[in-house]
Amino acid sequence: MANAKPRRNKPAPLYRWKWEGKGLQSRAMRGELIGRNKPEIVEQLAKQRIIATKVQKRSSLNGGGKVTHVDIMVFARQMATMVRAGIPILQALQAISDSIKKPAMVALTRQIMEDVSSGASLSHAIAKHPKQFDRLFVNLVNAGEQAGALDQMLDRVASYKEKVESLKSRVKKALWYPTSVLTIGIAVTMLLLVKVVPEFESMFEGFGAELPALTQLTVNLSGIAQKYWLQTFSTLIVSFILLKSAARRSSRVAYRLDSLMLHLPILGDIMHKSAVSRFTRTLATTFSSGVPLIEGLETAAGAADNRVYSQAINDVRQDVTTGQRLHFAMRMTNQFPALAVQMINIGEEAGSLDAMLNRVADYYEEEVDNKVDALTSLMEPIIIVVLGALVGGVVVSMYLPIFEIGTAL
Prior knowledge:
Blueprint: E1 15-22, E2 28-35, H1 38-47, E3 51-60, H2 69-84, H3 89-99, H4 103-117, H5 122-127, H6 135-147, H7 150-204, H8 213-249, H9 251-262, H10 267-288, H11 293-303, H12 307-321, H13 326-332, H14 338-350, H15 353-408
Antiparallel strand pairs: 1-2, 1-3
Helix pairs in contact: 2-3, 2-7, 3-4, 6-7, 7-8, 7-10, 7-15, 8-9, 8-15, 10-11, 10-15, 11-12, 12-13, 13-14, 14-15
Main location: membrane
GO cellular component, one term: plasma membrane
Keywords: Cell inner membrane, Cell membrane, Membrane, Transmembrane, Transmembrane helix, Transport
């Protein structure tokens, strides 16, 4: 067909190769390299004046694992260190590729290497992987290349990523710690009701006496659990999957879920402060790197990690585009804390907006940290009481009839 698009040949898969060879003065050497085929490994060794005597394929590097934000953070820090030391970009990428163990990250680094070796800039090479390298990363690397300060920009990106990931981990701790412990407690209680209580129930039938109220309640709950536990569990799993799918497909559902998270007691305050911190940190990083404020706001909207705040930041960007000052546009959204707005106002007046944005981010990061510590301290006794009531209540109710028989005798 005339309109058929030409097929692009897929690059050959990458493999990790174990090699043995002889270097200068016939010195025996061995190690590992990454490449697509045996001749490529032999050629790499030849460039290092090593004659390959044995090359053996070890494992594939395609589709192994997933590149995470932490992987990108480490990549940025390693690149910043090597570029600052004067190592050429291609050699720095090669060194990082050889030191990484995760197959997916190795494959990503090799793809960047191939683009750079063919003449592309580092910013252009990483821009081909938007899932791994966000807009902020690409923009700052591009600015660093143009200004001849790539090491500084990579260092700035790495510091930004480290602070954001630290903030994320604290928020996840606040969300997952109580959830996981209570889930385990409920699971143990269900196990007791479905498997253990029926054994006691068959024993109680031989007593021929009326059971205590607490024991009878536990037996009734056990009957309900045995009859409906599978339907209940299936309903919860299906509901979770459907809700997650709906949030992925519908921006309105996702917005409402994020809004609900912000209105949760205690946790909602942590989510608010986390979003403000990420917004101000991102904007400070872009603004201090010479990125225009309008473009920085667009990048910050994507980094807020909450659709309510993303919408508010987009509204701020539109107002700033029409000539409004940043702090006034933020106040108009009724979303940002008054303290943050006032501090940014001072920064604008003093001509030190980037420094003030960083101070706001530091302040709210510390607030999140304190809130998470307070939540953890508060939840520990509550969780102990709840778990004791759930598990201990079932156990005590099963032994009440036995205690009554013992006292009667």
